[in-house]
Design brief:
Hypothetical protein af1432, mainly alpha, 189 residues, single chain, globular, 9 helices
């Protein structure tokens, strides 16, 4: 696995190919998920190099499908990963694991493995962070521009329902994010 090379390649590709109107799902979100994935992996005791590289790669590719489509972007992200990663010395088995992690981020999330639970938590890490409100507003602006959500009161109800039903998958993420997530939920109410 040539992780650093594929990271450089994909960041440049996403920088040049992602729609600038992806206020939430832009490159900044991918970089945030890469960071959160590494943090959660450390808290969860993941130390072997292969697992860390697989997590980082999955985080890098998890929203790459937005370069080509909005609906079904996870499946497109897997297609892109399968196309690209073989050229960077990833085995078919490693690519399958990465695609499993990418698909685990699809809402509603349904991760099956420990690594899938880590990336699922990283993708929604912001729900329990101090920067929740500005990030949630970016998602509102993105969805509003697509005609999915038309006003802030409706958006706040959607967020309230989503956060009420959301649970982090890893113990470390529950320990560090649940209290702040509850505070955000109270703020929405």
């Amino acid at each position: 696995m040539r992780v650093e090379e594929v990271e450089k390649f994909m960041i440049e590709k996403m920088r040049s190919s992602l729609d600038p109107n992806l206020h939430y799902h832009g490159l900044h979100h991918t970089l945030d998920v890469i960071r959160a994935t590494a943090e959660i992996a450390e808290l969860e005791g993941i130390a072997d190099e292969e697992s860390l590289n697989l997590l980082k790669t999955a985080a890098l590719f998890h929203d790459s499908g937005f370069m080509n489509t909005y609906q079904g972007h996870e499946e497109e992200s897997c297609r892109i990963a399968r196309e690209v990663l073989i050229d960077f010395d990833y085995s078919p088995e490693q690519i399958d694991q990465i695609c499993g992690m990418i698909m685990a981020t699809k809402i509603p999330q349904n991760p099956k493995t420990h690594l899938e639970r880590i990336i699922s938590d990283a993708d929604l890490d912001y729900l329990g962070r101090n920067d929740f409100w500005p990030i949630a507003m970016k998602l509102f602006v993105e969805l509003n521009a697509r005609g999915t959500v038309h006003d802030l009161p409706t958006w706040n109800k959607i967020q309230e329902k989503f956060i009420e039903s959301h649970s982090y998958w890893t113990e470390s993420e529950r320990n560090r994010r649940d209290e702040m997530k509850r505070m955000h939920l109270a703020g929405l109410r």
